[in-house]
Amino acid sequence: MFLPEGSQDETGVQISNRLRASDIFRRVSEMRHFKPISTPVVEYANTFINEMAGMKLEYMLKWFNNDGEIEVLRPDWTAAVARAIANQRPSEQKWSYQGSVFRIDKDGTESRQAGIEIVHADRFYGETECLLTAVQYLNQLTIGQYVIELGHSSIFNLLIDSIGLTKIEEENLRIAMHDKKEDRITDILQSYDQTDLSQTLIGLINAYGGKEVIATYEKKWKDRPELLAVLQRLKQLIDVLETIGVDDVIVDLGRVKNLPYYDGVMFRGFLTPSGEICFSGGRYDRLYEQFDQSTSLSA
Q1: In this predicted model, what pLDDT tens digit does every residue of 115-128 receive, in sequence order?
Q2: Residue 236 — φ and ψ, nearest 5°?
Q3: CATH architecture type of domain 12-144
Q4: Do the beta carbons of residue 277 and residue 269 sit within 8 Å?
Q5: Residue 123 and residue 121: Cα distance in Å, rounded?
Q6: Architecture, CATH, for domain 147-287
Q7: Which of 147, 178, 190, 291 has the smallest C-beta neighbourhood within 10 Å, fewest atoms?
């Protein structure tokens, strides 16, 4: 009655647990030489709803300022940090952040995020450092039961690039892949006489598992060097994780990006047995284009 829907107070153990998690993240990021960064709670909406960022204004807490521009409470850290570090020196490569975000499509209006960004660095280094930092953080939290999933946005893009889909059709096909709707995939591609591609995409819906999945598709794509290069990158990341004792790693070759700015490796951590996502990230090079920057960005 006395708080807006989605808002809540914190007491006792809740506060202690949050502060403990925050302090551990700070220590881990400092140990790995990340430089902290903070952005304003109030931002222009366009930072988040432009074509590159792709977030929906309807889920943000927003208002018009005196100049008629839409301002929002920060709904996400990634785009905000990208804006902030676009003007920093290229020699500054590793950044960390944590704090509140505000959205109305979540269980609570206010939630908290912590994360890292690696820019102006070798792509493989950026991807591995993100994964290694996540693993170290989970270990410091004494979380030992989790599975890491690896995917790559280029698989879908490389397979459909040559058939001339409209933007709407491409987005609908991407959604069908995300939702694992085989009949919808077939319907979209039917007018293009792409039966083989349709079967390939439907097969990818279930192409998840260990290294054996990669081995299977290395044979299927033996004449597609660009796809083989993607599979090789995923194998390299698995090898890195295995060297530090992380054996529960799977690939999902049919995973598609859920935000426009993904353009490479994507990864997620799932707690077992609950299945909750405990971290996520990937390569976001395209996110910098809105700030007239060209660089590599892993987060």
Answers
A1: 999 988 899 999 99
A2: -60, -40
A3: 2-Layer Sandwich (3.30)
A4: yes
A5: 6
A6: 2-Layer Sandwich (3.30)
A7: 190
